[in-house]
Structures are given as structure tokens and as C-alpha cells.
Amino acid sequence: MRAVLAWKETIRDQCVYDLAFKPDGSQLIIAAGLRVLVYDVADGAIIQPLKGHKDIVYCVAYAKDGKRFASGSADKSIIIWTSKLEGILKYTHNDSIQCVAYNPVTHQLASCSTGDFGLWSPEQKSVNKHKVSSKITCCGWTNDGQYLALGMMNGVVSIRNKNGEEKVKIERPGGSSSPIWSIAWNPSKDEHNDILAVADWGQKLSFYQLSGKQIGKDRTLTYDPCCVSYFSKGEYIVMGGSDKQASLYTKDGVRLGTIGDQNAWVWTCRVKPDSNFVVLGCQDGTIACYQLIFSTVHGLYKDRYAYRDSMTDVIVQHLITEQKVRIKCRELVKKIAIYRNRLAIQLPEKILIYELYSDDSSDMHYRIKEKICRKFECNLLVVCSQHIILCQEKRLQCLSFTSVREKEWVMESLIRYIKVIGGPPGREGLLVGLKNGAILKIFVDNLFPITLMKLSTSVRCLDMSASRNKLAVVDEHNTLLVYDINSEELLFQEPNANSVAWNTQCEDMLCFSGNGYLNIKASNFPVHQQKMQGFMVGYNGSKIFCLHVYSMSAVEVPQSAPMYQYLEKKMFKEAYQIACLGVTDSDWRDLATEALEGLDFDTAKKAFIRIRDLRYLELINSIEERKKRGENDNELFLADVYAYQGKFHEAAKLYKRTGHESRALSMYTDLRMFEYAKEFIGATDPKNSRILMTKQADWAKSSKEPRAAAEMYLSAGEHLKAIDIIGEHGWEDMLIDIARKLDKAEREPLAKCAFYFERLKHHGYASETYSKMGDLQALVQLHVETQHWEEAFSLVEKHPQFKNHVYVPYAQWLAENDRFEEAQKAFHKAGRQNEAVKVLEQLTQNAVVENRFNDAGYYYWMLSMQCLDIARESEDQRDEMLKKFERFQHLAELYHVYRSIQRYTTAVGLTRRRPGSARLCQFKKRLRDEPFSSHMPETLFNICRFLLNNLTKDIPPGISKVNTLYALAKQSRRLGAYKLARYSYEKLQELHIPSRFQESIELGSLTIRSKPFHDSEDLIEGMMCYRCSTNNPLLNNQGSVCINCRQPFIYSASSYEVLPLVQFYLEEGISDEDAVSLIDLEVPHTDQRDARWQDMDNGELQALRMDDGLDDPEEDPFTAKMSFEQGGSTFVPVKVSRSVLRSMSRRDVLIKRWPRPLKWEYFRSLLPDVSITMCPTCFKMFHSEDYELLVLQHNCCPYCRRPIDEPN
Q1: Which of 574, 610, 920, 1027 is the most exposed place for a label (fewest CB within 10 A)?
Q2: Residue-level pLDDT at 770
Q3: Are 233 and 221 in contact (CB under 8 A)?
């Protein structure tokens, strides 16, 4: 660092107490005598003196925004001045003003006097003043404007907030004997805390945090400080005082040097904003402006650069990895030298030798190896592995790390340049350039320097090539000279050079800088130039190290220009060496391509490996293999190269010249250059033309031009490929055209057309195509898959062999769409009886679970009929299926009758619970949906009895005995069967009763006891057996048979009254056909039409006899054996002979014509006047009026649901 005087002025007989810069640095405000002086900073010319104070002006301060400044005087007043040098405001204190300071943020002015301080801002009219206990000597605001520090005569620093309240109090150890004379806040934005520099007349410099905590120890001064001022970025401090000079310090208080010696105390000093200019004000009226010049102290070795930072630190930078390490020396760094793993730093009183921790090239950790505690004066410093070299004018001294001077060389002229050029440890070589033009090589272990050559002009810069064969010199005329060391021949010279360096990795390359350009020279080729700021100091591979102002940077320079210079001369190997230093990928590709075309396969291979181009590497490998096999036709190799490079016409010509036309044709077709291929083969080869057309179609397909590809395939006769493309893209118009044009014998293309029609959901086209092929099975499958059932059924009518192919999927489709009944019928049609039974069983189970007992009864009936069909068709399963038939018929009837009971009990349960709008709506809806569901009490009474008579064994799922007994109890009471009602209530008590019936049943059980204990006679007479005339009980634990003759009762399937029917059986030898023909004969006697029942009273036994004109009444089987009481457990059926059959009237006989293997059943009506109708499908008996009414309501049989218009 050195200080250069810019200008100097003297104000006679006045002390310069304070000065302040305008924030833009253009003006300087000086407090001198009674006046405020305004100077031009550039040349020190006075602009204007300002008058306004009546006594000495002690202090001035400029606002941060540059709009106004303030001055304070011993006349106790403060004057606010504008930047136009006009006074706009004046206010006073009670004592003389000592210091003023503007808040950098709010522009609030702090003015301090001997006994108080005031805070004024433009927004307020009055000044807020605060008393203090001691005289204020200095003040300063923090960077954020939140706090004001006051330095006082009693050695105290008081830190106040913006309202003047004390927040922190710092007491210096010396107290009033060490008055605080100057303070300053560090303006750096990089510091994490606000740092306050405090200078007192105890000759100490200290640093504090805003909290009052001291940073480090006190720095001892040798003088009384009068002023402290920071540089704009806070990196340095300027101080002046009683030592009559201004000194430069680091921000930590380390003294760096003197700025300027004066003849009197330096009372004030300030740094010009954002510059290196310092202005001093002295007691004798001197004003001096100095410019500080900071020289660059640095050292470079290969990719490590060491330089001075903040005057006391050394930063070592790895130029490749950009890693940095800071070494804090805490003293002024004077010289730096770096070599391999050594680093030497010269301080004012010593030299420090550092070494790297490890040999790793990227290691950046340094440790102290040696300390040489001596003061040295030298111009240049060089470090080697075991020595340091000091350069003093003409003298070179070699010292060991222990400070022993081992050798000394005295030159004949001043040393201008010195550089370590390597060598073994302890025997390194130095390259030395002298002012007189001599260039020497010195080895540290040799006393005798070696003169390499002598120039006529002074040496400015030197470097030796990696092989030590060439020497590059820059002389004082900025001319670059390159010599051969061995012959001292001048190889070439270049103008405009200020520095030079050989490439450490390439013997023939060097670079030099000058006039803002970087110049790269390879061998004897012309220089390649590019713009660059600064000057270069090193050249390693593709990186050039440039120093610009104070920063070193590694510039990546592609070595493209010299590489292309070698390529122009077909010097491929030399070009490859240059490329290895660092070129772009495109340069590598150019090198590889040029070498390949030049048939230098070795260089081309290495270049293609570098850019990882596997395609060309495969080509080179194949050529090398062919060469090993004995091929040596370079024209053929070159043709392959041209083909790879895209030079197809040149390749085709070479192929033709070498007799390989097929290769040219393959090349053109592979590249889809079909027009060129056609030109190449001509029109004389139809086979090749067809192959070409197919390849062209393949290309059109792969290049996303499918329609063109399809047309080309059709032209080439490749129908299948064309159909695939057309089908994939859904062009049905083209597809149907092809299908119609194809012959029906071409089944594979037609089948593929049909397949795509199906995929495109064009059922009609697919059907047409299959019909053309005559593939009926595929046509059936198509109708099934597309669910065109009507077309499928019509096809099955013509071709019954496909019945299973249609009805089974149809049934499955119906089942999937919850149309189970239709599905069952479809399975039945398809002959899949087991599937039909499974569907029905599932339907039945669902109906029972969902309380749809009417459907359950119907499904059980259908199940029974399915079992009958299976029994008829399968001999093996006949017995099992007939048993199932009987069981399912029984269950069908039980669920059919229970439907009414369940409906009744549900309705009663709804009405018995507390009425609610939701339940009422539900009940009304039920009545609205089933308007004919309410039964007469007698019907419900009969149904309950029928069900209980048939529930003697296991109770089927879903049927509730409680509901049945409850309904029976209610209807019995209503019809006068009090005994049966009481029995029902008693039975109910034994069962688990739902809560909804609990109250009703308990009440009914009590109230029924008030009724007589017998049943109505009318009800008992209704249970008379029509065979033996016995009155049966209302409930019979033997089932639905007479207790006397065991004759089963025949019930009406609607009202469940006992019908006047008696079942009879045919005698042996009479077939069903014979029986029907005998019954159908014309009635022989008129008196038979008048036949009537006669009551025969035979003691206690009553019998009914039919007087049908037979000679012997005993022969009538319906009245025979009635003369004695049966009452046994064996049932004696009625068997009839041919004569009896002949005597019967057709209208009195009902026949259940069961399909085989069942036998027909015959019933005779004993009351011919009672009209009875039998359903021809389910064979259930009804009173004719009931049946007609039910058929009108439901349009079908209420039991088997056979539509009335369906033929029997």
C-alpha cells in the first residue's frame, strides 16, 4: 500500500475541526474557524464559504440522502443547510455544540453539546433534548438507524434508541482519565452484528457489539487518537491524532501503514464514499487529500493461486475446483510465494513457511512448517521445496527454512523476472531475466549461473517449454520472442505481448496476452486471437489463467483454432494431441470425420471413442476386421464411410466403381430413397421393382404414412399387411372394398377383414364377410358376441346343430342382466338342465330370503318340473329327481299359501304399532300395489289350517309358525272357532313372539277365555270327508287326510276349502288311454244323469252311495266298504273297474295328465253341481268362479303363471 498526495490546501491561522463528504463524493464540507467551507473534492478548489455562526464551528455532518447538511458551533447553535448551500433552519442548545450526526435511514439529526443532546427531524417543529452527565465528544448512528452511540469525556459510551432512552452503557477501564474522543460504526453489510470502533485518549482502540460486549482485546496506540473513520465497505479504518499523521488499519485494528505525515495534530480524517481517497484536516489548517494505491501481492504455481486479501490475509485458490482457503496472518502481508506443496508468506518481522497436509492434488489444507523470525528487505520472493530465494536488486540469496544462508548470486544487472521451472527437491532450477537482456538458468545447489542467451533489450517476462527446448521471452518493447534453447535460433516473434506462458501439456503451444487480446499460437501456424481483459499468467491444458485487477480466473479456451490448422495440413495425430487439451464435442467430431475420410482409422477411432459415437466405432471395427481378413480396397472402405456420413451419391458411385451395386441398392432402400433406387436399377428388372415396392410400403408404414403404405402393399399383392394397416386405423370403407374384391377362396385375408370388422363394431360388414366365406360357426359366434340374438335364433332354426352355441351364451347374458327366469328357460332350451336347475335354485333362495313367497312358490313349482324333465331324460337320476319333484311340489304349495299369511301379519303389524306418517304411507302403498291381496276371513282361516296341517315335520326357511298361529287365532275368534283360537294362543305361548305381536297376543289370550270353549258347528261341518262323511277336526295332527278313512283332502288352490273330489285308481290292466276312452263313451242310461246321492243310515255309521243304476250297490267302489267304521291306520284307495269307468260321466272326472315317468291321477267329483276348474299346466283345482276371477286379475294361472292365451 502507498499513499499519493492528490491535492493540499492550507487555511491560515485556523484549525480544521471536522469535515464531511457529500454522499456522492463531489463536495467536501469543512469546519474551520467561524465559517463552513465547501470544497471541490476533485481538485481541492474552494466552492463557497458559508457564514452564519458567530463562534468557532466544531462539527459538520451530511445527510445520507444528500439533500442537506448541518453545522454545529461554539455559539450553541445548529444550522441546517441545503445541498444548494442555503441555510434553512437554526436552533440552539444551552452549551456549545460538540458533534452532529444524521440518521442514515430516517435523516433525524442528533446534535450533542456539553450537557445534553437533541434529536431533530424535518417532520417535527421542536427539538427533543436529553440531559447527560458528562460532556459528549462524539456520536454516531447504527447502519439501520435504530440506535445512537454517544462518546463522553468520562470514558463512557452510551447507546440510545431513537427516542433518546439509554439501552446500553459501556464504561472504559480508564474512566475520565481516558475520555472517548472518537467512535465509528462499521458500515459493512457483510457483518452479522453492528460493530462499534472506540478510540480514547488512554491511547486504546477497542471494538464492541451493539449489546456492549467487547470484541477481542484493546489495541494499544502510541498516540492520542482524534478521529476514527471507516472505508465505505468497512474493510479498513483510517485514524489520525497526536502523532501528526494518518494511519491505515484493518477492520480488526491491525496497523498497515502511514497515509501522510503532517506538521500538526491530525484533528479529523474522512474517506471519500466508495473510493480510495482519504482527506485529512490538521490543527494548523492543512487539508490534504491522498489516494491509496493497493498493490497486488500474489503468487501462482500451475493451478494454485495465492493472493493477499484485506492486507493481512492470504487466500489460496484452486483455479480448477474453485476451492478457496483463507490463512489469517493478522499482520501486513508483504510478499507471497507458492511452489508445489509449499507456501511462503513474508510479514513485516518474519517469513512463514506452510506445507500441504497431503499429496492430494485437490488438498487445500495448509499447516505451518517453519517460521523464519527475521526482517528481510527484498523485491521478489521465491520458495522451493527446501529453500527460499530472496531477490534484492542484483542479488539473489538462497536461505534454508532454518534461516541459514546457503548460497548467494550477484548479477551484473537488475533482476527483472524470476521463476522456478521445477527440478528434484533441493536442486530446483530458476529462470532469471535481467534488465540488460541476459537470461540465466540457476540451480539452487549450484553456485554458478548458466547463461542461456543475451538479448539486446530488457527482459519483462520469461517461460520455458515443458521439454526445456524452447524459450519464450517478452521484452520491454512488448515483443514476444521464441528461441530454440539449444541452437539459440529465433523461431518466431509476435508483437503486442505483455506476458507469455507455454502450455504445460503440449510442447508446441503457447499463449500470450496484450492490448486486450489473448493470443494462442501452435507450432508455426498463424496466431489465433480472442478478446480478454487483464493479462494471462499461466497455460495448463485448455485452461488459461488470467489476472484481471485483483481477481484470478481460469478461462476455458477451446483449442479449436490450432486443431483445425493441423487438420488443414492432414496432420491428424498432431491435431489429436491438441484436441486432448480441450475442444468442444463438435470439434472432436470434425477431427474424427476428417481422420476417417483420410483413412487414419486409429486417430478416428480414438476421436469417436471420445464422443461415444458407437455407430462410427462399429464401422471402424468392421473395416479393421475386413482389413485383417485381407481386404485392401480403400475405395470400398471410403464408400462405406461416405454412406455413414450421408454422402449417398458419392458412396453409390464408389460402390458401382468397385462392383458392389447391391450395396448401393440396399443403402437407398434402407434410407427410403426409393426414387434414387429406381434410377439406380433402371426399369429392366421387374423382380427388383416389386421388392422395391414392398420395401417402400414398409417404410411408409414405419414413417407414420399408413394410408400410402396400405395402397403400396395392395399394389405389391401383400393383402394381409394392407388389411392389418387398414384395420388398425379403422378405415372401414377401404376394408369392405378389399373384402368384396377378394375371392371367397382367399380365406385368411377374408378372416382378417372379418376380425377387424368385429373390432370396429361393424356387425353388418363382418356378417357379410363370414357369409361370403361360408363360415357358419364364426357367423353364429359373431351374432352371439355382438348380442344380435334375433339373427342368431333365425340361424339356429335353419341350422339346429348350433343350438348350444346360441342358447347357452344367451342364457348367461340373461343371467348377467338379472333376467333369471328367461335365463332359466334359455338353459332349458339349450338342454342344459343342470344349469337351469342351478339358476332356479338361486332364484328360489333369493325369493325366500327377500320374503317374496309368491315368487318362491312359483320357482319351487318350476324346479319340480325341471326335476321331472331330468327324471324323464336320465334313467340314472330318475329316483332322486322324482323325490325332489315331490318335495319341491310340496314346498311350492306351502310358500304359495304362506304368502297370504305373511301379507296379513305384516299389515297387522304395521297398523298395530304407533301410527307414523312413514308407516302409514308404507301400508297405503302396499294396499295400492296389491289391491286384491286382502282375503276373506274364511279363506285366511282355511289357509292357516292347511299350512299347520302340513307343517307337522320340518318347517321350511322363511315360514313363521308364529305368524301362522297368530293369523289363525285372529280368524278363529272372528269366525266363532273359540276352542281353536284358545288352542292357537296356547301354542303361541310356547314360541318366541315378536315384540310387535306381544301385546296383542297377551290381550287375546285373556279375552278368549271369556268365550265358550267350543267351535262353530258350521265350521266343523265344512271339514266333512266326502268319501266317508266323517266330520274332521279343524286342526289335524295327521295332516290333510280324513281321520277315519285316511282319504287325502283335495283343496281349492284359491280358497283352500275342501273340494268334493275323491281320487281313484285304475285296476290292473287298464291303461290311461283305455280309461280315458271308457270315460269318454256316451252315457248309457238316462237315469244315470239323474243319479243322486242317497243317505244310508246304518246305525251309527253314515255312508254316501251313488245310485248309478248298477245292479248291486255294493259294487260301487265309492260307497263300498263304508258299512263299517274304518278308523285304522291303513289307507284303502278307491280302485275302479272298466264297468265303473264306463258308468262315469266325463264332466264328473278330472284327470291330472302328468308327463312320464309319473302316472296320471284321476279324481271324481261327488257333487257334480259344484263347478271345478283344473289348470292344465300345474293341475291345481279351483272353484270355477274363483279361477275365472283370478285369471281376469292376473291374466294367467295364479299358481303356475301360465298365460291364458298360451296353448296347452
Answers
A1: 920
A2: 65
A3: no
